[in-house]
Design brief:
Layout: H1 2-17, H2 24-42, H3 46-68, H4 77-99, E1 114-117, E2 120-123, H5 124-146, H6 148-158, H7 160-165, H8 170-195, H9 203-217, H10 222-243, H11 245-262
Antiparallel strand pairs: 1-2
Helix pairs in contact: 1-5, 1-8, 1-9, 1-10, 2-3, 2-4, 2-8, 2-9, 3-8, 5-6, 5-8, 6-8, 9-10, 10-11
Length: 276
Amino acid sequence: MAYALVALGFVLALNAAGAVNFAHGDLVVLGGAVAVVVGQSTGLAAPLLLPLVALALGAAGIVAARVAILPLAARPPEATFVATIALAAIIEHGLTVTLGAAPRTAPALAGSGSFDIAGLALGRQPLAIVVAGSILVAGVWFLLERTQTGRRMRAVSSDRHMARAVGIPVGRYIMLSLALAGALAGIAGFLLGHQFLVAPTQGAGHMLKAYIAVALGGWGSVPGALLGALGIGFFETFVSAGFGDAWASAALYVGILVVLAVRPQGLFGEPVGRRA
C-alpha cells in the first residue's frame, strides 16, 4: 500500500505536468524526515503528525514543480530530467547535512507490537499502513471519479489546451495535482519511516519502484500504477519470505523484463503522448 501511494503520486504529477519528476522518491524521504523532526520536537502523536506531513509535502510538491518542472515545460524533455535529478540531489544532500547520514525512525502510526488473531500475529504498524493506504487510495479515487474537481483535473491531464478552451483554469488544477502528488509521497514516507527507517539515500529506490509500477501498469494510467505497485509489493513480500531479499529483487527485475517484452505498452496500455 505504501508503494501504491508513491506510484499514485508519481502518476498524478506525470499526468499534470507532462514530465517525469525524478525527485519524487526524495519527496518520499522528505516526508519521513519531516515526521521525524516534527515528532521529536513537538512530541505530537503520530495520527496528528499525518496531516502536518501531508500539508508540508503538498507545499514541497508545488515548490518542486515551480522550480524544476513548469519553467522548463517548453524545453526538450531532457532539460526537465536533469533539473529534477538535480533537485533530488539537493534534497538528499540537504537531509544529509541537517539530519546526518544515519537512519532515523519515524513515529509509529499505531504503536509497536502486534495483534494475535487465531494464532496469527499481525503487526500494528503494517496493519496501519494497509488501512491508511486503503483509505487514501479510495479517497483519491472518489476525488478523481466522483467530484467536479477531479473531473477537471482529469480533463487538464488529458488535454490541457482543450481544457483551457472550455474555461477550466488549467494552472490551478496543475498545482492541485502536484500538491496532491507531494502529499501522497510524504504520507508514504511517514508510513514507511518506522518499518524501514528514514535515510537520505533512499530516494532513488523509491523513485525506481514508482517508475517500474507506472511502466508495468501503462504509462499515465492511474489504475495501472496502483496495480503495478501492489503487484511489486506482494511479489517482494512473498518471494522474500521464501527465498530472501536478494532473490526477491533479482526475480522482480526478471519478471519486469518478461512482462515488458510481452506487453511493452504495460498492462493497461499506454495513453498517447505519455511516453518516457
